[in-house]
Design a protein that fits this description.
Layout (H helix, E strand, L loop, with lengths): L4 H12 L16 E4 L17 E4 L3 E5 L6 E6 L2 E4 L4 E10 L2 E4 L10 E5 L15 E4 L3 E5 L6 E3 L10 E3 L11 E4 L10 E9 L2 E4 L11 E2 L2 E2 L3 E4 L4 E5 L3 H4 L4 E4 L4 E5 L1 E4 L12 E8 L4 E3 L2 E5 L4 E7 L2 E3 L2 E6 L3 E3 L8 E3 L2 E6 L18 E5 L5 E3 L2 E5 L2 E5 L23 E3 L2 E3 L3 E5 L2 E2 L6 E2 L24 E4 L2 E3 L4 E8 L1 E4 L2 E3 L3 E8 L1 E9 L14 E2 L23 E6 L4 E11 L2 E4 L6 E4 L1 E6 L12 E10 L12 H5 L11 E4 L10 E5 L10 E3 L4 E4 L3 E8 L8 E5 L6 E4 L10 E7 L3 E5 L7 E7 L6 E7 L5 E4 L15 H5 L7 E3 L2 E7 L9 E6 L6
Parallel strand pairs: 1-3, 2-4, 3-5, 4-6, 5-7, 6-8, 6-9, 7-10, 8-19, 9-20, 10-21, 19-22, 20-23, 21-24, 22-25, 23-26, 24-27, 25-28, 26-29, 27-30, 28-31, 29-32, 30-33, 31-34, 32-35, 33-36, 34-37, 35-38, 36-41, 37-42, 38-43, 41-44, 42-45, 43-46, 44-47, 45-47, 46-49, 47-50, 49-53, 50-54, ...
Antiparallel strand pairs: 11-18, 12-15, 13-14, 13-18, 14-15, 16-17, 39-40, 48-51, 51-52, 55-56, 56-58, 57-58, 59-62, 59-64, 60-61, 60-63, 64-69, 65-68, 66-69, 67-68
Length: 852
C-alpha cells in the first residue's frame, strides 16, 4: 500500500544472491555437514554462540537446536536450523531465513514445546527492508508444524453468566492449562471472554473463573447461534517480548518472493507492529503464485496489527485458524491482485478499531471500520468461516477498481471479476455482517461507493450483455445474527443470496443493486437469544438486547427505536423469492430503570429509510411466508424540513416507495402493489393497512425522472395528479454537488400529471419514463411559453423531432410521436416503444432548435 520500489529491489537481489543461500528446492538446501547447537565443533569459530551475538549458520551447515541458546542479537540461517524433539526456547532481536528453519514437518509435527521470542525494540533497525523484531524469510523456507489440534468448536448448550463450567460439541485434544476464548453471542463483540481450562471431562470444561456474560448455545428457529469456543494455546509459540504489550511493537513474520512458508499448529502472540505498514503477525509479501503455502490450524491473538496478510500473492491456503483481539482488518487481502487463495474454516473474534487514546491509528483509512475478513478481489474461496465480533464488519468485499499499491495494474478489474466462492460463512456481533460495497479509492484508500458488476470478460468495459455477458455472483448459505445494522448489504448488479439464515439483526438484507434477489432463505426478527444488555442500554420488556440500544439525541430519554426489518427494498429491480419470516412484531422497550417506555416497530419488509435516491417501482416479493410476523411497515415520512433539504435528506426516493406482490403472498392479492401511505400514490380503490402505513393497490407504477440539463436550481419540482383529488408530490432532487438537477417520482401508469418547476422551464429539460413495458405511458402537462423543440430517445436531430399535433384530440390519440401546446400549457406523452429490451421513454424539450 506504499511505494515499495526500494524494498522490491532488495527482494529481487536477495532472491538472486547465491552467496547468501545454498541451492533451494521445495525441501530446502542440502548442506554437506550436520551438527548440534551444543557442540562447539559444529561452529566455524569452534565455540558456542554467546549472548548478544549475531549468529550465522553457513549454507553448507545444518544445525540441530538441542539446547536453549542465550538471547541473541540476530540469527541468519543460510543453511538449515532444525529443532530437536525436546522443549526448546530461542530468543533473538531478529531471525533471517535464506536457507531453512524447521520446527516439525507436515508428516512429523513437532510435539514438544517450542518458543521463539522476538526481542528487537529499535524501530530504526532494518533487516533487508523488513525492520526488526522479525522472523523474515528471504528466499528460504519456513516450516513450522506443531501438534495437530482442533482449533475451535461451539457450545453444546447455553452457558449462563456466572458459569464455571461449559459443555462444547467437541473438546477432543484440549487439555488442562489451555487458554480458550468464548465468542460473544450478543451485539457487543466485547462480550468475548478468555479463560483457562482448569479441568476437563469429555466435552465438559471447568474454567478458572466464572463467566461475566452469558454465551448462547442453541439453534433457535433454524438459525445456529451457538457460541464459538476457540483454542488459543499451541505447542509452538512465536511471540513478541514482554515489552510488546506496552509499546504495541510486536514481532512479525514476513515471507518475500522466492520463499516458501508453511505454518500449522502454531500460536502467534503479541505480534504485529502498531501503525506500521507491512508489519503483521504473518505476511506473504508480493510472492505471486504461492500454491502449496499455508497457515493452518493456528492461533493469532493480542495482535497490534492484523492477523493474516496476503499481499500480491495467490494460491495461499488459510484454513482452520483462530484469531482473537486483533487490531485493524484481520484476515487481509491487501491490494486487490490477490486471487485463488482459500480461506476456509477460520474464526475471528473481536476485531478492534484503533483507539487513539492508546496511540493506535491503523495503517490504512478503513482500519477505522475494521473487517474480520477484508477481501479485495472476488476470485478467492471464502468458505465456512466465522466473523464472530468486529467493531464494524464481518466480511467486507472492499473491491478497488484496479489493484492498488505495488500491485497496481490496469489489467485486473476486481469490481468486474466473477465471484470465486462465498459459502457457509457466519457473521455475528458486528455492525454489518456482509458488506459488498465501499471499496478503496485508488488515490486515498478511503472507502468509496463500489458497484460490483461481474462480467465474463472483466477487462472489457462494455456493459452490453450480448458483448460481455454478466455473471451471477451467488452468496450461498450465509448465517448472520446479532448485527447492529445489516446482516448483508450488496451494491451492484446480478447478485443472488441463497440459503441465508438470519436472526436478530437490525436489517436482514439490503440490495443497493439491480437484478438481485434473496432466495430460499429464513429471516427471524427476535429469536430466543435475548442477549445481555449492559446497564445503560434500552432493552425489550422481555429483557432482550436491542440492535440500537442508545438514547436518541444527546442525552435524550427515549431510545432510537429503529424499526427492524427482514428484507429492505432499495434501488432495484430487486426482490425475494421463497423466504420465511418469523417473529417480526412491535416490541415495548424501556431503559434500565423502566422509567421511559416506547415501542420499537418491526416488519418482515420495509424500504431503506428516508433515502433521497431513486427506487425501482418493479421491486417485488414472491413466496413470502410469515410466522408471528407483521408483513410490512413503512415508517411515515412527511415533507422535509428546510434543514433536511439543505442536508440532502429530502427522502424523495423513499416517499415513492412501492413494490409488487407478485403472488399475493404478502397482502393476499396477486399482482397488486404495496404502496407507502401517501395520497399521491393512492386513491379510493386502494385498501389501506394502517398498521403497515401502506396501501394495497391494483395499479401498475412506473418512475418519472426530470433532468435540468441547463443547470441551475429549479427545486422544488411539483407533480400533481390530474384527477378529482389532485394530490401533489414535491421533489427536492437527488443529492449531488452543486444544485440538484435530477428529480424522480413514482407515478401510476396511464395517468395524466401536471409538472411544475420553480422558476422558468430551463432551456433543456429531459423527461424519462421508466420501469415500464412497451405501450405503457403517462401524459404530462407543463406550463410553457413559446414553441418548444422536442426530441425523443436521446437523439437530438431532425429524425427524432416531434411534430405539433393537429389538435388536442390528435394528441390524445397519438402514441407519443407528437405534442400539443395550448394556452400556455405544453402537453407531452411518454410512451415506451415496442423494441427489444426497451422499458423506458425519453423526451428532450428544448427552447431552440437542436438545443443549440
Amino acid at each position: 500500500m506504499i511505494r515499495w520500489l526500494g524494498l522490491l529491489i532488495i527482494v529481487i537481489l536477495a532472491a538472486c544472491n547465491t552467496d547468501s543461500a545454498g541451492p533451494l528446492t521445495h525441501d530446502g538446501p542440502n548442506p554437506s555437514r550436520t551438527g548440534v547447537w551444543s557442540d562447539p565443533s559444529t561452529w566455524p569459530s569452534g565455540q558456542l554462540p554467546r549472548a548478544g551475538e549475531v549468529v550465522v549458520i553457513p549454507r553448507n551447515l545444518a544445525v540441530v537446536l538441542d539446547m536453549n541458546p542465550p538471547p541473541l542479537k540476530g540469527l541468519t540461517i543460510n543453511g538449515v536450523l532444525r529443532f530437536d524433539n525436546r522443549d526448546l526456547e530461542l530468543s533473538a532481536d531478529w531471525i533471517m531465513v535464506h536457507g531453512k528453519l524447521e520446527v516439525g514437518t507436515p508428516s512429523q509435527p513437532f510435539r514438544n514445546r517450542a518458543v521463539i521470542t522476538l526481542t528487537g525494540n529499535n524501530p530504526n533497525e532494518d533487516q533487508m527492508g523488513m525492520g526488526t523484531k522479525v522472523l523474515g524469510v528471504m528466499g528460504g523456507i519456513l516450516d513450522l508444524h506443531g501438534e495437530p489440534r482442533k482449533g475451535w468448536t461451539q457450545l453444546a448448550q447455553t452457558a449462563p453468566a456466572g458459569a464455571t463450567q461449559i459443555t462444547v460439541l467437541d473438546a477432543s485434544g484440549w487439555r488442562v492449562g489451555d487458554r480458550i476464548v468464548l465468542a460473544s453471542t450478543d451485539y457487543n463483540p466485547r462480550q468475548a471472554e478468555v479463560r483457562t481450562i482448569q479441568a476437563i471431562s469429555g466435552n465438559t470444561i471447568t474454567l478458572d473463573a466464572p463467566l461475566r456474560y452469558p454465551h448462547f448455545g442453541e439453534v433457535t428457529y433454524g438459525v445456529d447461534q451457538r457460541a464459538e469456543v476457540g483454542l488459543l494455546s499451541r505447542n509452538i509459540l512465536i511471540r513478541g517480548d514482554d515489552s510488546s504489550s506496552s509499546s504495541g511493537f510486536g514481532g512479525h513474520i514476513m515471507a518475500m518472493m522466492g520463499s516458501i512458508m508453511r505454518v500449522s499448529g502454531v500460536e502467534l502472540y503479541r505480534m504485529g507492529q502498531r501503525n506500521l505498514l507491512a508489519r503483521y503477525p504473518i505476511h506473504w509479501h508480493l510472492m505471486g503464485n504461492a500454491a502449496g503455502q499455508y497457515i493452518k490450524h493456528s492461533s493469532i491473538h493480542e495482535s497490534f496489527n492484523r492477523c493474516v496478510t496476503i499481499h500480491g500473492t495467490s494460491g495461499v491456503e488459510v484454513v482452520g485458524n483462530v484469531a482473537y483481539n486483533t487490531l485493524g482488518h484481520c484476515y487481509f487481502l491487501e491490494d486487490g491482485a490477490e486471487s485463488k487463495n482459500r480461506l476456509e474454516g477460520n474464526l475471528g473474534i473481536l476485531t478492534r478499531k484503533p483507539d487513539p487514546a492508546k496511540g493506535e491509528q491503523g495503517v490504512i483509512p478503513t482500519d477505522k471500520t475494521p473487517a474480520t475478513f477484508w477481501i479485495t478481489h472476488p476470485d478467492n474461496i471464502v468458505r465456512n468461516n466465522v466473523a464472530a465480533g468486529s467493531d464494524h464488519t464481518g466480511f467486507w468485499y472492499a473491491l478497488p477498481e484496479n489493484p492498488t499499491g505495488p500491485s497496481a495494474t490496469t489489467s485486473i478489474w476486481p469490481r468486474r471479476t466473477p465471484l470465486g466462492e462465498f459459502s457457509g460463512n457466519v457473521a455475528h456481533s458486528n455492525w454489518d455482517g456482509l458488506m459488498v460495497d465501499r471499496g478503496p479509492n485508488k488515490n486515498t484508500l478511503e472507502s468509496e461507493t463500489t458497484y460490483y458488476n461481474p462480467r465474463t470478460n472483466p477487462g472489457n468495459p462494455s456493459n452490453n450483455d450480448s458483448e460481455n455477458p454478466p455473471v451471477l455472483a451467488e452468496f450461498k448459505n450465509f448465517t448472520a445474527y446479532k448485527n447492529r445494522n445489516n446482516a448483508a448489504w450488496l451494491r451492484g448488479i446480478n447478485h443472488k443470496v441463497t440459503g441465508a439464515r438470519l436472526a436478530d439483526n437490525a436489517i436482514g438484507v439490503t440490495f443497493a443493486s439491480q437484478e438481485s434477489t434473496l432466495e430460499d432463505s429464513l429471516i427471524v426478527g427476535d429469536s430466543e437469544n435475548k442477549g445481555f444488555p449492559e446497564n445503560w442500554e434500552f432493552r425489550g420488556v422481555d429483557g432482550r438486547s436491542l440492535p440500537r440500544p442508545w438514547a436518541a439525541g444527546s442525552g435524550g430519554p427515549i431510545a432510537d427505536n429503529f424499526p427492524i426489518r427482514g428484507f429492505e427494498f432499495y434501488d432495484g429491480k430487486v426482490g425475494f423469492r421463497n423466504v420465511q419470516f418469523i417473529n417480526f412484531q412491535p416490541l415495548r422497550i424501556h431503559n434500565a430503570q423502566g422509567s421511559h417506555t416506547t415501542t420499537r416497530e418491526a416488519s418482515a419488509m420495509s424500504y431503506l429509510r428516508f433515502t433521497a435516491f431513486a427506487i425501482d417501482s418493479r421491486n417485488f416479493a414472491q413466496g413470502a411466508r410469515f410466522t408471528n410476523a407483521k408483513p410490512v411497515y413503512l415508517p411515515p415520512r412527511p415533507e422535509p424540513t428546510p434543514e433536511e433539504i439543505a442536508e440532502d435528506k429530502n427522502a424523495d426516493g423513499y416517499r415513492g416507495a412501492v413494490f409488487v406482490d407478485i403472488d399475493g403472498s404478502v397482502g393476499g392479492r396477486p399482482g397488486h402493489t404495496i404502496v407507502l401511505n401517501t395520497p399521491f400514490l393512492l386513491d379510493t380503490n386502494c385498501e389501506i393497512r394502517t398498521d403497515w402505513n401502506a396501501g394495497i393497490c391494483n395499479y401498475s407504477y412506473g418512475r418519472l425522472y426530470i433532468y435540468n440539463q441547463s443547470g441551475g436550481n429549479i427545486a422544488p419540482v411539483s407533480l400533481s395528479r390530474n384527477d378529482g383529488s389532485h394530490p401533489v408530490f414535491r421533489m427536492w432532487g437527488k443529492p449531488q454537488e452543486g444544485a440538484n438537477t435530477e428529480f424522480g417520482a413514482t407515478v401510476i401508469k396511464g395517468r395524466s400529471y401536471t409538472l411544475s418547476l420553480t422558476g422558468d422551464v430551463p432551456n433543456k429539460l429531459r423527461l424519462r419514463f421508466d420501469d415500464s413495458a412497451p405501450g405503457e405511458f403517462i401524459n404530462l402537462a407543463i406550463p410553457y411559453s413559446g414553441e418548444p423543440f422536442i426530441y425523443r430517445d436521446y437523439w437530438i436531430d431532425n429524425r427524432n423531432k416531434l411534430p405539433r399535433a393537429a389538435s388536442r384530440a390528435d394528441f390524445d390519440n397519438s402514441t407519443g410521436d407528437r405534442y400539443w401546446a395550448e394556452g400556455g400549457t405544453l402537453w407531452v406523452k411518454l410512451v415506451v416503444r415496442n423494441q427489444p429490451g426497451r422499458d423506458w421513454a425519453v423526451l428532450d424539450i428544448c427552447r431552440n432548435d437542436l438545443c443549440r
